[in-house]
Every structure is written in C-alpha cells, then in structure tokens.
Amino acid sequence: MKDNSNKGNVLITGGSSGIGEAMVKAFAEQGYAVWFTYRSGKNRAENLVKILSQFSVTALELDQSKPESITELLRQLPGKIDILINNAAVGTRTVEKIAKTEDSQDMAFFQVNAIGPLWLTMKILPTMKKDGSGKIIFVSSVDGGVTHFPKARYADGMSKAALTHFVKQLAAELVSDPIDIYAICPGATETPMFTASTLAKLSDQERQNFLSSLPGKRLIDPDEIARLALFLCSKEGALLRGSVIDASMGLGNNPFSVHSMRGKR
Predict the structure, then answer these.
(1) Secondary structure class of 57 (helix, strand, coil)
(2) What is the pTM of this model?
(3) Which of 128, 169, 188, 198 could form a disulfide with 134, with the two C-beta atoms 3.0–4.6 Å apart?
(4) Is pLDDT at 32 greater than 90 in this prediction?
C-alpha cells in the first residue's frame, strides 16, 4: 500500500540508476510523490518502482533529445510539478550507446546534456511562475560545470558548461520570483556512468592509486548527492538559491591532481 502523504510532486530525469536512482529513493522516502524518467533502462526502472512500492513512485519513458518525447512525458504526468531535477545526461562512454561517430557524439553531448534540460525546463517554468513557487535543480559535473580536466572530451565538458551558464542566467532572471534555481556539480561519484568512463579501464592497483589521489581519498556516494538535493529543497536550502555548487569534495579546486580521470578527446 502506498503512502498517501505528499510533500509535493518531484520529476527526476534519468532516475533508473546512479545519482538519479539515489534521488528517487531519497525523495520518495521523505514523502514526495516521485515521477522519474528512463531512456533505455526500462527493466531497471520497473524494478525500482517495485522496490519502492510502498511509496508514490512512477517511471516514465523519456528521450530528452527529442522535443516530441518531452511533450509526451508532460502529457502523461498526473499533476503539476513542484520540483524539477534535471539529472539525465550522457558521459564519454554512455554517449557511444546512442551515437557511433565522433561528430554525432559531439552533437549528442549538447542535445542530451544541455538542450534537453533547456527544453524541459522552459515547458515547466510557466506553470511554476503561475503558481508562484517551484524548485529546479540541474545536475551538472565538476568537469565543465566548475573547472576543466586536461584531455577530457571537449564536447562533454562544453555541454556541462553550457548547462551551468543556463542555470546562472535563469537564476538571474528569476531572482525576484519565488522559484529557486540550483546546479549541483558532483565530482568522482560511484555510478555506472563513472565506472564506464573511468574505473572500468583501471586495474585494481590503478583504481587504488586513483582513489588515493582524490581529495577525500574515496569516491562520492550517490546518496550524498541525493541528500544535498533534499537539503536544497528545504526551507534552509533557499539560502543557496542561484548557486552552482561544487560537490566534488575539493576536486574542483585542483583538478590537475587526478591524472587518472583523463579521458580521450
């Protein structure tokens, strides 16, 4: 039986794994009605709904690189959105699943990581303005969102930089509106995406060396980013409205210390 208590409605894109999955669990357990999207992980999404069957959780398909898919998603939503979390993205390895050539991958980085969140946000924002309330969180990355890493994939970092620029401009335009805008820029986080892009190619010793080179000597847990998102949606979190938050445990202050994070251009 689902918990009928509802603190509000939350839409989380890319919620079937990694940081998105952690956010789905965190918000559901705190009494929010959670609608989350998936692109290709239908089985993972359905399993997550089963795991959280005592809460109000719904999985919906979305390809945010296509405007018609965004329109269809919004048509299916059972109510208004109080909190939007733009989390879905592609990385240096996951982009290979949707685009085969380097040129098409560069386009996909921008389409999924920046243009998609732009389209979705601009569809939802008018209702938030009309209602006089709302919170929008963008999950970017320390690479591009805060700093840059030598030899990282250009288009990946550029797309994250474009996303944080959008956040800053939107926050400036909404500074007098009761809508809170934030960007979270995680560092090395233990997710399937980061494993595919970085950890999978390391030997056990190389992985240990990599972890030792991180400022916190460990990977960030997705639950930590989820709890940060919950805080931003609290009354106290409003103090940080408009912020681009470096959530990298200090990696953003000295990215050159972690050579193992370098990907391929």
Answers:
(1) strand
(2) 0.92
(3) 128
(4) yes
